[in-house]
Structure formats: structure tokens, C-alpha cells
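User: Let's play a game. I give you a shape written as C-alpha cells, and you guess the letters that built it. Ready? Here's round one.
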């Protein structure tokens, strides 16, 4: 009938305000956690250096540590920044109610049956809990980006790359 709303209002004020409030509260928690990690890291690092100097040992020389290849560093930093930017974009007010019906379901409709079933299951979970699902997506993407930026080498860096590829799929 004319004048009736036939679709979901992706800017429902109650959902938008809940989403923004959840993001703000979680952002404050993330800031506190990061501050505690930074303080702990600084204290532990200074204790480690103090013990090394008192014990006669010297800190690692920069010329003994193998540098990260430039191409790998470029990819790691680029993907980290892309994930952070993607997480920020995920924080838009229309994401809790608009992402699944406007972006994910139309894309999955041309996929194989098993993909459509997985997407349908995820869509039901998202539809029943749009605010927690959207805030989780924001923080997962920002977290992957930060992880890629911080983990320069070793097992943590490889694991960050694996998590990035898995979440991207």
C-alpha cells in the first residue's frame, strides 16, 4: 500500500543510540586496557634493561637483529591500516541493521548452496543481536589492524596474518 514502509529502517534511533553507546563504552574500556598494557610494558622493559646493565650484559645490538624485509613491512603495515579503516567504517550508524540485508545477503545469493546456508545462519544471529554483533565486528577489525601493526616478526606476526586472512574470508 502507498505510504507504508516496506523495508527495514537502517537508522532506527533506538538501535543507533544503543550502538553508539556500546561503541563509546567499549572504546573507553579499550583505552584503559591499552594504557595498562603500555605502563606494564614500560615497567617490565626498564626492569629488564636495569638487570642487564647490572649483570654486565648488554642489550641486543641493532646490527645483530635481522631486519624485516621492506616488502613484508609494506604489506603488514598496509593491511593493518586497511583493517583499522575498515573497523572505523564498520562503526557507521546504519551498520547494525543495514549490513546484512543490504550487503551480505545480496552478495551471497549468487554463491553455492553451502555458502548461502552459512550466510543465512550468520544473518539470523546478526538479526537477533544487531548491536553486539556490529560492535564485535568493529573491535575485531580494529584489533586485527593493530595486531598487524604491532607484531613485526615471529610467531605473533604470522598468527596476525593468518587471523587477518581468516576474518577476511
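Assistant: Ready! My guess for every position:
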Amino acid at each position: 500500500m502507498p505510504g507504508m514502509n516496506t523495508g527495514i529502517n537502517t537508522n532506527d534511533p533506538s538501535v543507533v543510540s544503543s550502538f553508539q553507546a556500546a561503541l563509546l563504552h567499549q572504546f573507553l574500556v579499550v583505552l584503559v586496557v591499552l594504557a595498562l598494557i603500555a605502563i606494564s610494558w614500560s615497567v617490565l622493559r626498564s626492569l629488564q634493561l636495569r638487570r642487564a646493565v647490572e649483570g654486565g650484559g648488554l642489550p641486543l645490538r641493532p646490527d645483530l637483529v635481522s631486519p624485516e624485509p621492506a616488502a613484508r613491512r609494506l604489506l603488514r603495515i598496509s593491511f593493518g591500516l586497511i583493517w583499522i579503516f575498515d573497523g572505523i567504517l564498520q562503526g557507521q550508524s546504519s551498520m547494525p541493521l543495514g549490513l546484512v540485508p543490504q550487503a551480505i545477503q545480496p552478495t551471497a545469493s549468487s554463491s553455492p548452496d553451502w555458502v548461502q546456508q552459512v550466510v543465512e545462519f550468520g544473518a539470523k544471529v546478526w538479526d537477533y543481536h544487531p548491536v553486539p554483533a556490529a560492535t564485535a565486528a568493529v573491535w575485531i577489525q580494529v584489533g586485527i589492524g593493530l595486531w598487524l601493526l604491532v607484531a613485526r616478526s615471529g610467531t605473533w606476526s604470522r598468527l596476525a596474518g593468518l587471523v587477518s586472512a581468516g576474518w577476511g574470508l
